[in-house]
Write a structure and sequence with these properties.
The protein is built from eight helices and five strands, in the order E-H-H-E-E-H-H-H-H-H-E-E-H. By secondary structure, the protein is mainly alpha-helical. Strand 2 and strand 3 form a beta hairpin. It is globular and about 60 Å long. It starts with 16 loop residues before the first strand and ends in a 5-residue tail after the last helix.
């Protein structure tokens, strides 16, 4: 019996499907069904008789990740967050990471658009944060920014906030993969 563990398709590499009895054995099967429904809507899994199988997008992301489980998890989670962030907030109650994602995205949105690392000041980042997400005390913002720097998500050099090349490169690869898998219409 799985206790408190969510099934991720990338963790079922040796299985062709997630079986209904596996879901029923979970301590929160209704939560797992919500999660699978979300993944089904995104073509990451598909409903089959007595369970779920890999969906078309899972197969494509797996090939792109060259079957590297870590890269596959990142690609799937990135896609889910990008496409269904509001659902994650509502259905799964995932909100504690929001302030960190918001501050981090205030930097990386611009870096992704430029497709290179950019240098920005604390005050510019803070103003972007306020513009995108509403008011926040400068103390809270600085605390979050400091935590992100301690974790290596952002850096500071000569008074400027910078991203990391490794993270930006990963995001650029995912951006390209998303564009290839979901080309613009028109």
């Amino acid at each position: 019996m799985c206790r408190g563990r969510l099934y991720l398709p990338s963790e079922l590499a040796g299985e062709t499907r997630i079986k209904e009895d596996q879901i029923d054995e979970h301590d929160r099967p209704e939560r797992i069904r919500q999660y699978l429904k979300l993944l089904e809507e995104l073509s990451i899994v598909k409903k089959v008789e007595n369970g779920y199988a890999y969906g078309d997008l899972f197969t494509a992301l797996s090939e792109r990740a060259r079957n590297d489980p870590r890269m596959l998890r990142i690609a799937i989670l990135s896609h889910v967050i990008k496409e269904r962030y509001s659902t994650l907030r509502y259905v799964f109650g995932i909100t504690q990471l929001e302030p960190f994602l918001h501050v981090d995205s205030c930097y990386y949105w611009h870096a992704l658009d430029a497709e290179k690392l950019i240098h920005t000041t604390h005050s510019t980042l803070y103003h972007r944060y306020q513009s995108y997400y509403g008011w926040s005390s400068s103390w809270s913002f600085q605390s979050i920014l400091s935590d992100l720097m301690e974790q290596g998500a952002l850096t500071e050099e000569s008074g400027y906030v910078n991203g990391t090349q490794t993270q930006l490169d990963t995001m650029l690869k995912l951006k390209q993969t998303t564009l290839e898998l979901n080309p613009p219409i028109g």
